[in-house]
Every structure is written in structure tokens, then in C-alpha cells.
Write a structure and sequence with these properties.
Length: 429
């Protein structure tokens, strides 16, 4: 059954995914002579860099999510469909979705990335990922429920296992969630649970490589390690987890670790709809594209953002899977699609690295810019400003700013709610 989209004389651009890349492309194209169809499984855009703040009760999910239909209000040539993409039929220029089929003139795959467990079923079943708002909310519930359970336990060994948290992966997500948890332990939890001894709560970070923040400079990685250790976090570099049964973490060449909360922040892989041939995929389940983000061997099929793998002279192993790459690829592709309409030459994509940053709690952050590096309070303020300005929606920015301001001056936040979905219908009388 075809999806109900008006037939017009305009070229139809179907964008799969409303992350940084997909949303940016739609916003760049809607003023031009295209019919845009934006397909996503959610009706909102998610700001991934702040998932960890939802997980640690710093922000509500609604603060970092923005309704797609709100973005494109009163814009008639943008059509939003909430559906799962089941298959791409490139020969017929059709995609199959849970709503039905739809044709396209140009197809853009911007499905982003999901958690990569590297084939480890035990971590997939027992660990907690953090690649969506719902997963971040689940983690928040999990942590808070453990604290509620802890007040009923007297056995010190069982209590330590319940309170302790192990984070696997020393990238920005792993580092930032550790910093947030350490601040909760120091400033907030003792006030909420005065009858618990939080000295038994261990927060540990394991990274397989010899450096934290592998995509940043060695100096920033070393500084982040020092910041974490100053907060009381145990950092283990060059260590690898091999098994987890929900209580015991087995490490290679190290003693086991006891915890009921393992946060998996160790890697990502592309979210691939069916229909793309296996020979067009590379490591990490990414689609190989040319310098114009066109899928090799497929006319008018493009991939941008985390799902795209492009080799250049400077990035022989592909670009980093970060927001700036996604945004810049979307901008370049929008120009090329417009150029195609106007019979002009296409522009090759060239990534301009604007820098990287990570925060490790209050007044602690590291920033790598192309021309210099810095850390400390200035880096922390820079991190806050950049992320605040990147949020979609003025109201969301204001809410986040007020939350951050309140937390900074009061050393507290009032978002520690355990919200669990129920499948039961409410009783009516």
C-alpha cells in the first residue's frame, strides 16, 4: 500500500533518519524546488551529546528532544512519516516501510549509528547502552531503583555490588557519564539517602586502549584521566572486559569486578536498512560512499553522517563518527542536489575539523581546537556554550540553561524521578 504523500511535479527527496545529518539536510533543502519526505521511527529529533545528563538525572528527556513537526510547521513541501524502514529497492526507486511503500527520485540514508557490542551477547543482554533517549531514561531508572533497593540491604558486600557502577569505553560518553555520576555521589545522593554510606560506591571506567578520549590529543586524554581520578573514579586503561553475567564482570589479566550496573559506551555501528548489498558495506556496518556521499554503484542513492564511510587523502580510514561530520556532509549534499537541479558541477566533500571537546563534571573539561588546546573552567564554559547553541528550539535551550544554572549554584537537581512505562490501561470508574 503506497504511503499517502501528494504527487507533485517536484523531485522527491526521501531522507531516512532525523538525526543531525537528516534534519540538517531537510532544513537546507525545504526552501528549494524539492518535495521532501522525512522518515524516522520517532517523531522527534534527539540531541545525543546530552544523553548522559538524562541518564544521571541532570535533564529531562523532553529538554534534549524536539518534535519534528514543530520544526517544519507551515512548510508544505516537507512530509513527515513515522515508520520503520524495512527494505530499500534501489532498482525500482522504492522503499518499503511499516506504513507502506514510497517512491523517490533521490534517497538519502541518514540512519546514524547504534550500540556496537562487537558480538558479545553477554554485554548486550546484561549491559546498559546509551544511544537513545529511551535507553538513557532506562539507565536513570535502573540507577535510582538500585539506590532505593540499597536502603533495605545490610550485607556490605551486597550493598557495594548494588551501588557500584562500571563504565566500559573511554570516549566522550564514557568520560562524561563518569564525571556526572561522581558529582551525584558527592553532592546529591548523601542528601537523598542519609542512611547509606556512599564510600562503598565505586565508579570505575575501563578502556581497552592506553588513552582516554582516543579521538582527541594525548594531552587531553591525560588531563581527562587526572580529572576523573580527582573525582574518585578508578580508571583502568589497556584493560578489556570479556564476560558479564549481570553481577560479575570478568576482565582479561585483572581481577573480577562486582556490579549490577554496567554501562556500555565502548563502540557504535551503523543502523543499516535491508536492501544495500553486502559488498557496499565496510567495518562497523557503514556504507561506502564516494566524495559526493553517493553510494558506490547506486545512482541517486546517498548516505551521510555516521552511516557513511568515505575515504579521503586526509581520512584514509573514514571520518570520525561525530556530529560535525554529519552536519557538514548534509550541507554539502544539499548544495549538490541543488546544483544537479540547475545542471551545475558538484562539490567534493571536505571535512573541516572544528575541534573536539569533553566535560568531566563541574569546571572540568578539555577542548582541542585546530589551533590550540585548553582545559579547566574556560573549557567547561566553552563546552556548555557550544552544546547549548546546538540544541534545537529556543525553549529547550532556555530550559537546559536554567537547569544548569540551578544545579551549579545549588549543587542539586530535582529530576530524580523513576518513570516506568505501563502496558496496562488505567482503571475507569
Amino acid at each position: 500500500m503506497p504511503v499517502n504523500i501528494p504527487e507533485t511535479g517536484k523531485k522527491r527527496v526521501v531522507i531516512i533518519g532525523a538525526g543531525f545529518a537528516g534534519l540538517k539536510l531537510a532544513r537546507k533543502l525545504y526552501k528549494n524546488d524539492f518535495q521532501i519526505v522525512l522518515v524516522d521511527r520517532n517523531n522527534y529529533h534527539q540531541f545525543q551529546p546530552l544523553f548522559y545528563q538524562v541518564a544521571t538525572s541532570g535533564l529531562e528527556p523532553s529538554s534534549i528532544s524536539f518534535p519534528l513537526r514543530k520544526v517544519f510547521q507551515k512548510i508544505k513541501n516537507v512530509h513527515i512519516r513515522i515508520a520503520n524502514v524495512e527494505r530499500i529497492r534501489t532498482e525500482e526507486k522504492i522503499i518499503e516501510t511499516s506504513l507502506g511503500t514510497m517512491w523517490y527520485d533521490f534517497l538519502v540514508i541518514a540512519t546514524g549509528a547504534t550500540t556496537n557490542f562487537f558480538g558479545n551477547k553477554c554485554f548486550e543482554e546484561n549491559g546498559v547502552p546509551m544511544k537513545s533517549v529511551s535507553e538513557a531514561l532506562y539507565l536513570r531508572n535502573r540507577i535510582l531503583l538500585n539506590f532505593e533497593k540499597a536502603v533495605t540491604i545490610r550485607d556490605p558486600k551486597e550493598l557495594k555490588q548494588l551501588l557500584s557502577v562500571l563504565v566500559v569505553g573511554g570516549g566522550p560518553t564514557g568520560v562524561e557519564v563518569c564525571g556526572a555520576l561522581a558529582e551525584m555521589k558527592k553532592y546529591i545522593l548523601p542528601k537523598d539517602y542519609p542512611d547509606l554510606d556512599f564510600s562503598s560506591m565505586e565508579i570505575s571506567l575501563i578502556e581497552a586502549s592506553p588513552q582516554l578520549l582516543g579521538g582527541m590529543s594525548k594531552e587531553s586524554g591525560a588531563k581527562a584521566k587526572k580529572y576523573l581520578e580527582d573525582l574518585g573514579i578508578k580508571v583502568m586503561l589497556s584493560h578489556r572486559v570479556v564476560n558479564y553475567d549481570g553481577q560479575t564482570v570478568e576482565l582479561k589479566d585483572h581481577e573480577n569486578f562486582q556490579t549490577e550496573t554496567l554501562i556500555w559506551a565502548a563502540g557504535v555501528q551503523g543502523q543499516m536498512p535491508e536492501g544495500i548489498e553486502a559488498n557496499k558495506l565496510v567495518r562497523g556496518n557503514r556504507i561506502k560512499v564516494d566524495r559526493y556521499n553517493q553510494v558506490e554503484g547506486m545512482e541517486n542513492v546517498f548516505a551521510i553522517g555516521d552511516i557513511a564511510y568515505m575515504e579521503t587523502e586526509k581520512y584514509a580510514k573514514g571520518h570520525p563518527q561525530v556530529a560535525q561530520v554529519a552536519l557538514q556532509q548534509a550541507t554539502t549534499l544539499s548544495k549538490n542536489l541543488i546544483n544537479k537541479q540547475e545542471s551545475k558541477n558538484w562539490i567534493k566533500f571536505e571535512y573541516k575539523d572544528k575541534g573536539s571537546m569533553a566535560t568531566i563534571g563541574r569546571n572540568r573539561a578539555v577542548v582541542d581546537l585546530p589551533f590550540f588546546r585548553f582545559s579547566g573552567s574556560l573549557a567547561w564554559l566553552t563546552w556548555m556554550f557550544v552544546h547549548l547553541m546546538s540544541i534545537v528550539g529556543v525553549k529547550n535551550r532556555l530550559v537546559i540553561f536554567v537547569n544548569w544554572l540551578w544545579k551549579y549554584f545549588t549543587f542539586d537537581q530535582s529530576l530524580r524521578l523513576i518513570l516506568r512505562a505501563s502496558s496496562e490501561k488505567p482503571n475507569r470508574r
